[in-house]
Amino acid sequence: MIKKFVRKRSIHLCVVNTGGCNGCDVEIVSCLAPRYDIEQYGIYVHNNPREADILVISGPTTLPWIDRVKELYEKVPEPKIVVAVGACALSGGIFKEGHVLGGIEKIIPVDVKIPGCPPRPSEIIEGILKSVHLLAEKEKRLKK
Amino acid sequence: MASPLWYLYIIKEKIKNIIDAKPNKSSYIPPDRYRKVPPILKYPKKCISCEACKESCPAFAIEMYYNNEYKKNLPNIDVDSCISCANCVEACPTGVLEIDKHRLETEGLFFYIPKSHTLMIDGEKCVLCGQCKEVCPIDIIIEKPDTYFIEVSKCISCKECYKTCPVGAIIILDEKTHKEKINRFFELKLKKSFGELDISEKINKIPHISKYICIKCGNCKEICPGEIDLNNYKVVNCLYCGYCLEVCPTGAIRTEVKIEAKNKEETYYINEDQCIGCRICYKVCKVNAIEISKEIKIPYIIPDKCVTCGLCAKKCPVDAITKVKKEVAEKTVKKRIIENKIIEIIENDIKEYTKKYGLVKDYLENILKNKILEELKKYVMEETKKIMGENGDKRKNN
């Protein structure tokens, strides 16, 4: 029980931009600033997939990024959660007609979707916090 | 303040704060004007299935699906790709969609409706039938003396007018074709700047510019080796190279205008028993499909030329004009056409005959006149010689 309680409060993020317009990344960065302050919930942005719990993906996944994203997903240790941020990561958004995959869901499983172009920082924090309880559940499933 | 309940409440709040590690909840709640994701179908009964929302969406998030409950096509908004720009809410002519309170706040304000296709009416092809005006769901097509005109800023690009136009006078400006033409333009411009543009005669007519659909992009002016005056829509100096035709995004610069009917199976037909011979249809027709029979002095419609615009049927005071299949109309009209042709041939023959008769007559008269004059002159000369001779003899004798 203590482990579950603690696990909820120490989460490591890895933020990946797969070729978007950077709007979502700016919103994620503003989560770090004092106004929203993502660290008060025990969430740290390391940008190192080897020690991350949650993979935060933004952008429409351009064609060269497909293999990279798969690689990054494999590098993250179990249990892992994928959070897709913004309209582009969900379905391609305004880049639908370009040379993009359109939706990260086609190559890796997504646990939490945050729509919006771009979503507000508060929405991103809400989405990440709601995904946290999944970590403990996944860990349980792994033990079995 | 001093009541123990109050202290209990504060202690409870503080413990809660520590456990949840959250400050006040207000930081989560978005401010009032924030647009929620996504827009919703608030009044689906009002929807007229015009697809204005689909046209205006920059993220291609809206698609039309048939709804069994309302028995019409309703927009379906894809939550994932919606960027909540509220274009669809502002574009909707009947106010079906709603996003927060945005529609109420912006109602009545001027707004250039965004769309991926722009419609324009080609005035040179327009036959002034007015079907587009009847069909338009938001009444933005204006009648002008020589053409109809679409107000581009208010148009929602539902393409109803495009579907009903009998001659294809309405053109669709598409971003894709625009891009292709501009790419071609830059190719040619590069060649021109290096001096590699080969100028040989490819067309045999001087092209003209239609002022109704020219958007003054200036592509033709820059590529032309001759001279084009865009302000007055005139080609001043032409070298017959034909590059301007390849580069124009709307097809406004062209050598010839062809008015062709979309509907090739039907025509209008004048019932000769009902017709009163007022000839209003003959004056109104813009494609010259109506001719007047020389035998019975009543107009008839040539099925090959008719574009089925229905203008003659609308203006007819006794409703003698009806829409029939082409084969039916051809049978009855053929007689009139052949009749007319025979009469025309006879009339022409008579005209030529009379012309020739007149010419011959003139010719003969001239010859006769000249001959008479000459002979008269000869006679007079001889007489004068005689008289002069006699007088001379007399003088010599004296």
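qc> The mean pLDDT of chain B is 85.
qc> done
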